Amino acid sequence: MLAKATKNRSEREYKKPINKHKLQSYNHNSEKIKETVISLDNKYISDLSFSLEMAGEIIPGGFFSNKNRVDLAGTFYFNVDKNTQLFTSERMHDFSNEFMSEFMLERRAKKKNNFLN
């Protein structure tokens, strides 16, 4: 299960991303639920989903933004071990100016701004 967790207004830091996502998995053999927090430090997670690999890894991935949850600046994904819930690899890729200019005005793409989702 994938869930989004937000802080109360009084707990939020000024101009810091307020969302973290939690990945919960249930192991039928041990009858235990494990939880992993997915966060991108000072980036906003715009969209997130996950897939399950045959080898047993959980792969959450999606889009991130530098400014808010609406704009997009790149993609990310993690590999999570299903038994330990530890990240085995993490990848983030910023959209290139060329890629961004296909979807927005060239002037805005050169500024390396996010584009709207």
Q: What does the model show?
A:
It contains two helices and nine strands. The protein has 117 residues and is mainly beta. It has one domain (2-116). The strands form three sheets. It has a four-stranded antiparallel sheet with strand order 4-5-7-8, with no helix packed on it. It is flat. The mean pLDDT is 77.
Short description:
With 117 residues, this protein is mainly β. A hairpin with a 4-residue loop joins β4 and β5. The chain contains two helices and nine strands; from the N terminus they run ββββββββααβ.
Tell me the layout of helices and strands.
Layout: E1 2-6, E2 19-27, E3 32-38, E4 44-52, E5 57-65, E6 71-72, E7 74-81, E8 87-94, H1 97-101, H2 106-110, E9 115-116
Largest sheet: 4 strands, antiparallel
**First-residue to last-residue Cα separation:** 24 Å
> How many structural domains does the protein architecture include?
1
- Unreliable residue stretches: none
Strand content: over 45%
Proportion in helices: under 10%
Q: What Rg, in angstroms, do the CA atoms define?
A: 16 Å
| Tally of helical runs | 2
Q: Give the class from helix and strand content and strand pairing.
A: mainly beta
For the residues shown, what is the average pLDDT? Answer: 77
Spatial strand order of the main sheet: 4-5-7-8
List the helices and strands in order.
EEEEEEEEHHE
Instruction: Tell me the number of strands.
Output: 9
Shape annotation: flat
Any descriptors?
mainly beta, flat
